[in-house]
Request: fold
Amino acid sequence: MPGNKYNGNPNHFPGRVERLVRERELRKITRASHFNESADNNNRVTKPFEHNLRSREDNNSGTSNAQYLEATARGLYQGRESQDGRPYRLLVVANRLPVSAVRRGEDSWSLEISAGGLVTALLGVKEFEARWIGWAGVNVPDEIGQKALTKALAEKRCIPVFLDEEIVHQYYNGYCNNILWPLFHYLGLPQEDRLATTRSFQSQFAAYKKANQMFADVVNEHYEEGDVVWCHDYHLMFLPKCLKEYNNKMKVGWFLHTPFPSSEIHRTLPSRSELLHSVLAADLVGFHTYDYARHFVSACTRILGLEGTPEGVEDQGRLTRVAAFPIGIDSDRFRRALELTEVKNDIKELEERFEGRKVMLGVDRLDMIKGIPQKILAFEKFLEENAYWRDKVVLLQIAVPTRTDVPECMLMLLFLLSLLQYKSSQNRLIFYNIAHVL
Reply:
């Protein structure tokens, strides 16, 4: 059995002794509060795990969202420094780069900031020297275009992963957005007839693993000894395993930007065990909330039969730490935006436009799980039942059109556009594309 990499002791202890030694050393590293193991085997995961995470949340109640993200990265660094005293690089790996590429010529590209919660959240991480690895959102089959795009992205400290159209169709539109995204949001697996446009489940899963290996190949190409690799989201659940197979000493973290469902829901996924084992290859696994972290630990104990500890999940003497890191936006960026002349003019225009009326504001991504149609129907019902408010309230909905290649999202977009055409004449429902606001 492999030695415990967290306490530096290569010797193997019997199960309980090994666990106690590890917990003692981890308490020193994380400065977590002391806890007692539960005598009830059915609750041996929930109670200590909850106490540990809850105490962290209480101790950090005044911490900003950006600091939470930086704390995640620091948890991977653990004071590591290069020989000349500088910190090692942080390699951020996500499905999409923080910029979108538009081709202007054979060897010419223009770059624009991408929209999305992950990009917005990670803009707050400024403490480390970072490189971002991901897909540029465009198919580049020719070598000249790939070299030109790589050079343009290098100026933004970005490194591209080149995925062809078939891989994107099967991996991104298929397995990621047709399988994992609905399941993680409790919508269940699609029926077989809905898989027809993206072939079979097996081909989607094969493309998913192939795409993750392509990301791993790019990471391995640019990895330097001591770098910390931070993998993001459900698109790259296989990546920690791929990276550890390349270099077991590589520091790898994985963070999920969506809910993680209960074990009862996750067990409906045919590839459930393989995905869980792949994520557990990481040194640190992070989630938005304690509930999502608890669901993950529960899935590992109930589906894989592993042991949950107050710090995470243990598999044959190796501990994968699991923690909650609530994140949000770079608030300073939005404060600075309030001082811009064009923003002040927009605010003045909105105040004049909605003078004398209550404004109900909705800010959502244009996605099938956000409940925007239900919100509009509820607003309509409110107006039908409360005639007094019909000329005194307006719903202002800010939305970002994403996943335009996913059929369900396109249907909802068409529905909203038709609804907007009907309702806008009454001046009670107004839509904005958030890209034009920011």
